[in-house]
Amino acid sequence: MKNLARSITTNQVGIHQNLEKVVLRHLNSESQKPLSEHTKEAYQAAMEWLGDWQGDLILDSCCGVGESTANIALAHPNAKVIGVDKSAMRTEKHHVYSAQTNNYLIIRADLQDFLRLLVLEGKRLHKHYLLYPNPYPKSAHLQRRWYASSTFADIVKLGGDFEVRSNWKLYIEEFAAALNIANIQSTVTQVQGNTPMTPFERKYWESGQDSWKVTATLSKA
Ligand SMILES: C[S@@+](CC[C@H](N)C(=O)[O-])C[C@H]1O[C@@H](n2cnc3c(N)ncnc32)[C@H](O)[C@@H]1O
């Protein structure tokens, strides 16, 4: 029997009342948090892999086992794709999904620090995927969500065609609201199709849950 995914339970009704305040605070300040050594090393390894690459760079943030990273790489043979996840348990399982292409790399790193380093080095993205990030549905956990953290400013600065997916519609609506606060237009739609892009998407669909996405073109700052 299939392991069904539980649907989201939350004590939050509608867009969080503190969203605007929190997003503006992060957009108007620089993160002072020291960067972790292990992410600095992972970043260095990623830069060595990229070498003097000047072409399109695509990021698959919170890539889990990297199934989506491999498929994105196959669909974009002229780009280089990096999948980032902090869980070694997930990234080490990647070999199961390895695609017949070598234009991608899966690395274990903390996303917050990894994006910070990309921004500090002036990198820009062609596309950026954030597929099924942990939703933190408790109202009190607003600031653990990516759009209500210091990482949101870095996501905006990195630019590119941006896509976030979630099985929690309010997460997607709040992401769109955060983008709007940053003066960025976005589109919210239900994810359609028969072929799941990630293992979590597959699990949600097999459990009868819908999933949602927000897409936006982030300017090349
Ligand atoms: C719900 S899973 C989704 C994984 C994959 N995208 C999928 O759809 O199958 C969320 C992922 O985010 C990763 N994650 C959470 N916080 C992170 C962080 N600070 N840096 C990097 N990865 C993180 C977790 O390790 C986990 O693999």
The best one-word shape is globular
Number of domains: 1
Q: Could you state the order of secondary-structure elements as H and E?
A: HHEHEHEHEHEHEHE
Tell me what the CATH architecture is. 3-Layer(aba) Sandwich
- Can you tell me the residue ranges where pLDDT is under 50 for at least 5 consecutive residues? none
Please tally the helical runs, counting DSSP H or I stretches of 4 or more residues: 8
By DSSP, the count of extended strands is 7
* Hetero ligands: S-adenosylmethionine
CATH topology: Rossmann fold
- The CATH fourth-level homologous superfamily: Vaccinia Virus protein VP39
- Helix- and strand-based class? alpha/beta
Please give the order of strands in the largest beta sheet: 3-2-1-4-5-7-6
Distance between the termini: 49 Å
What is the average per-residue confidence, as pLDDT, rounded to a whole number? 95
Overall CATH class: Alpha Beta
